[in-house]
Each structure stands twice: as structure tokens, then as C-alpha cells.
Amino acid sequence: MQPVATTFFFYFLSGITVLSGILVITRNNAVHSALALILGLLAQAGLYLMLYAPFVAGVQIILYAGGIMVLFLFVIMLVNLERAQKEEQFNKQWLVGLLAAVALGGLLFAVYVKGGTLFTEHIAQPVENSNTQQIGVMLYGNYMFAFEIASLLLLVAIIGAVVMAKKRI
Amino acid sequence: MLSIESFVAISLIKTVIALFVLLTAVAYTVWLERKVVGHMQNRWGPTRVGPFGLLQPLADGVKFMFKEDLIPPHVYKPLYMAAPMLAVVFALTSIAVIPVGNSISIGGIQTSLQIADVNIGLLIILGVTSLGVYGVALAGWSSNSKYSLLGGLRASAQMVSYEIALGLSLVGVLILSGSLSLREIVDAQSGTYWGVLPRWNIFPQFIAFFIYLMAAYAETNRIPFDLPEAETELVAGYHTEYSAMKFAMFFMAEYANMITVACVASLLFLGGWHGPRFGPPLLQAILPVFWFALRIFGFLFVYIWIRGTLPRFRYDQLMAFGWKFLLPLAIANLVVTALVVAIQS
Could you report the predicted ipTM of this complex, rounded to two decimals? Predict the structure, then answer.
């Protein structure tokens, strides 16, 4: 079956992602921010699905929306939110932030304008059936070294967290 | 090739049927549990409403609908309202990718007995169940009461911990069948070993099955892992502040999750709908569904049996069991399975 209304779904999911991103930084209550972030991650999973990458979409939901964000929420639920809400939402560095945002925006706009020549027109091939297999081959074949380095970094971070949290090992 | 209109129409019909069957099954699982646990404890269980108390689920449903829906003044209302809905939605969603049998043809239209045949079916089930924890966690937080909060915190810690063992236990099966599609996993289990033993994954993967069983009980917050709602310590845990239909929705979510877990266990370990087929063509078409339902019934019975048998774990025992026993065992099983498959191929 051919995909239907791809344009609509693309703008719909992108809109949700952007909107929830804005909500994450503007909400006073940290729980609301976390919920908005979950929504954004789910919409991103939808975008991955549209790129014919069902495995990435599934892993995005399981790991980010279902795993990491649960831990985020877990910690936030233990924090005294009433005190946090009285504190100032944004710090005084808005000028620097504005400059950085304008620079990044300009860069993205330049890419958008010149994109026609920089990137060749590419239509994703429907390779849904072997997506999982392809990712496995890529990770454990072509990019084995990078993959192992990434897992080593994560291991170091875990050990660091344990050392910091536990007084007596 | 189907047109988009007929595709949507067929999917809608299948969704309505699947939801109706699932919700009926949920209601009668509650009845079965009360009846079986009752007999195990030398009681009768429900007997008054209908023969053998069979109309009890209907009576309960009516009671839940007409009870006063109390919203305590100290709750955070939007999330308090949303939490039971989230719980029930995520619990019911996973039925969409569960196949219950081969394809059938009605009126010239060939359709598979499954709402959506996707090739990452198992990932979707894992994803949706991992999202299910939000219903419980948010209910605990938004209720703004210490018992609810403790229940919600316990639930999220427990579900995140056991999810890892659960996921890893399924990877062994995935290695054996080489697919994430539930239909292909079931098809890979047809036939027999040496002509007698059915080719079910439970035989080569019995350790994985044990891990899955334990982790699934913890995921669905059932005894002996029902610490999120431990009555002796937490009143009722995360749903302490809920009443009427909102409470019933948490109840429904729990039983729907039990049925999902039973479906996954049957599909992945017990050969799905494979079984002897005989008789006229109509019977032959229906029998696979019957065999599948029989497996789910058996699984639910074991669930209830364990509930009637075991006491509750202590919280540190629960965490130690998950992290120090189930997880290393799952990893060891995974390594051995991968090694054997690599040597054989």
C-alpha cells in the first residue's frame, strides 16, 4: 500500500515536536516540562517511522519515552516543586542566548536556501522489512569501532555516577 | 491490493471486534480470579448474580458507572483525570499488533486475524507497555497524597527495573526466529523436534521463559510483586484517591495488561495458535483461534494460582531479585543462545 497524506503527517508531527519543545522550556512546573518532552519524543518517533525506520522509532519509544523519561519523572516527583516554582524561570543571559539562536537560525536558513545544490534530491527507499537487520549489520560491521567507543563512554559515565553516589564502595 | 477506504473499513471492524472481545475477557478474568482464589481459600467466590455468579462482571460494571465519582479537592485535576485514561489506553493499544490466527476470507476478502500486521510488532508491544507506567506514576503524583506518591514511585522503579530483564529474555527468542514480526515468530515454531516434541521456543528457551514469567508478573504489578498497591502499607497505593469509574479504569488496565502478557507468552514461547486441526473447513479455520485462547486461559490460570499461593516480597528483595538475579541470568541466556546459533549456522 502506498503511503497516504505524507505531507500532512510530516507537518503535523513536526508541529507537535516544535510546540512541545517550546513548552518544555516555558512551563513553570517541572512535571509539565517532562510531559511535554515525552510528547515531543513520541512525535519524533513518528517522524522516524515516516523515514522508513521502524526499528529506530520503536527503540526511541522504548528507550527515551518509556525508559529515560520515566526516570526523569521519578526524580522530579521527589523534588519539592513548590520551592522550585518560586524561583526565576530564566537567567540573565538572554542576550548571549539570543545571539546564539540568531546565528543558528541563520545557519539553518542558509542551508534551507542553498539546500537544493548542497544535497541531492533523495527519496527514502521503502526498506522497512530489513530495517532492523540493516541497523544491526551497520552497528556491528561498518561502525563497530565507533559503537564500542560509545559504549565505553557510557560505561565510564555509569562508573562515575556510582562513585559519586556511593560513599563507601 | 486493497483500496484505502476498504482498508480503513476492515481495520475499524477488526478493532471494534478485538476491543469487544478483550474487554469481555478482562471482565471475565476478574470473575475467574475471584472464583478460583475463592475455591483455593475454601470459599465459594461470587455466587449470587446469575448461575455460578457469571453475571457478576456486569453487576460490577453497573455499580462502577453509578457510583459517585469523587474528586478530592487537593488533587492536581488535569493529570488526575488523565492518568486513568492513559493507563487504559496504553493497556488496550497493544492488542492492535497481536495476531490471533492465520488469515480468513469472508465474502471474497482475505484478511489476517490481526488488526495491524507490522514487522516490528514485538517492539511496539514493548514500547506501549513501557509507556503504560505513566498512567500509574502520574496518578501517584497528581493525587497529592503520600500513599499515592509512594505507590507511584514504587511502580515506576519496579517497572523500569523489570523491563530490562523482560526485554532481554525476549531477545533469545528473536535470535532463534530471526524476526520481530509476531506472525513470523509463530510461523517459525511450526513443526516438531524429532517428530514428537512441538517446535515451541519454550523448550530451547526455558530459562528465558522463566525470566519472562517473573518479569511479566512484576510488570503487571501482580502478587508476589504488587508492592505499588501493597494494602498493608500504602492503603491502596497509586489509586488510593480514585473512586468509581476512574478506579475501574486502573483495574481494567491491570487485567488488560495481564492478557497482553499472556498473549505475548503464547506467541513467543508456546507456539501461538499451532495445534491439531481436524473436521470440516469451518472448524479448521476456527480451531487455531481456539488453541490460542486455550493457551491464554492456561497462562491466566497460572497467574491467579500464583496470586492464591505466594505472599508479597519485601521491597529490597524485589529489587535484588530483579537486578542481581534475573538480569544476569537473562544476559547469560542471551550469550549462550547467540553462541549456539552462531556455531550452528
Answer: 0.80
Query: How sure is the predictor about A1, in pLDDT bands with cuts at 50, 70 and 90?
Result: low
> Are the Cβ atoms of A62 and B160 closer than 8 angstroms?
no
| Chain A residues with CB-CB distance to B156 below 8 A | 70, 73-74
Q: Which of A27, A80, A132 should we substitute to test contact with B (largest number of B Cβ atoms within 10 Å)?
A: A132
> How many structural domains comprise chain B?
1
Which range of residues forms the domain containing residue A157? 131-169
Using CB atoms and an 8 Å cut-off, which of residues 71-130 of chain A contact chain B?
Answer: 71, 73-74, 77-78, 128-129
CATH number assigned to the domain comprising residue A23:
1.20.120.1200
Residue B166 is part of which domain span?
67-344
CA–CA separation, B165 and A93 (whole Å): 45
Residues of B in contact with A129 (CB under 8 A): 119
Write the pLDDT tens digit of every residue in A4-60: 677 888 899 999 999 999 998 888 788 888 889 999 999 999 888 888 788 888 888
The verdict on residue B35 lying in a domain is: no
Q: pTM, whole model, 2 decimals?
A: 0.84
Domain boundary among A55, A83, A111: A83
Number of domains in chain A: 2
